[in-house]
Amino acid sequence: MRVAGFTMIVFGLLGSFFFAVGVDTGVSTGVSGRVENIGLLSRQSNGLIVSGLLFMTGCILVGLAAVRDAVDRLGPAIIANAPRAMPPAQQRSAPLEPAPSPNDTQSAAQSVQAVAEPSFSKICPDCGSISMGTAKTCRRCGHQYSDAAADASQVAP
């Protein structure tokens, strides 16, 4: 794969040099000198595109060969350090819940909304910004919420 990649890089570079420098796109008019021929410009452009694609494909092949060599070299070390099994249930941080089915979009949207929104909000009496119900201070002006003011300023969602 590496040899094919380097071959493509070489042909891509040679082709781009040939089409950029070696192709003459002008034609003689006889009276006023030379003009650019659209057909020759198109041929030059197509040659440069193909050469560029050859070059990029060669670079990708050389990169993939390097990755393959690194995996071959480090593969046994990666496998030796891989975890063998899931941790026991008592060591897991939270119970695993099944993912919602694709047909159950309304319940998924409701669960996302329930997580995203707090159960109540507070409105700051100084600046009027809305804070989460569990906030102790206003995030905009720094007003300290008291328990009585917090109960009066709570708004249901």
Secondary-structure content class = mainly alpha
Largest sheet: 3 strands, antiparallel
Within the largest sheet, what's the order of strands?
4-3-5
What's the total helix number?
Answer: 4
How would you describe the oligomerization state of the chains in this entry? single chain
Distance between the termini: 61 Å
How large, in whole angstroms, is the Cα Rg? 34 Å
Approximately how much beta-strand content do the residues carry?
5-15%
Number of DSSP-assigned strands: 5
**Shape descriptor:** flat
Helix content: 40-55%
Number of domains in the coordinates? 2
Mean pLDDT: 77
Region (Disordered): 85-112
Transmembrane segments: 46-67
Keywords: Membrane, Transmembrane, Transmembrane helix
Description of the molecule:
Residues 85-112 are annotated as: Disordered. The chain crosses the membrane at residues 46-67. The protein has 157 residues and is mainly α. It folds into two domains: 2-79; 117-155. It has four helices and five strands; from the N terminus they run αββααββαβ. β3 (121-123) and β4 form a beta hairpin. The model is unreliable at 149-153 (pLDDT under 50).
Would you spell out the secondary-structure blueprint of this structure?
Layout: H1 2-22, E1 26-28, E2 34-36, H2 38-81, H3 105-116, E3 121-123, E4 130-132, H4 147-153, E5 154-155
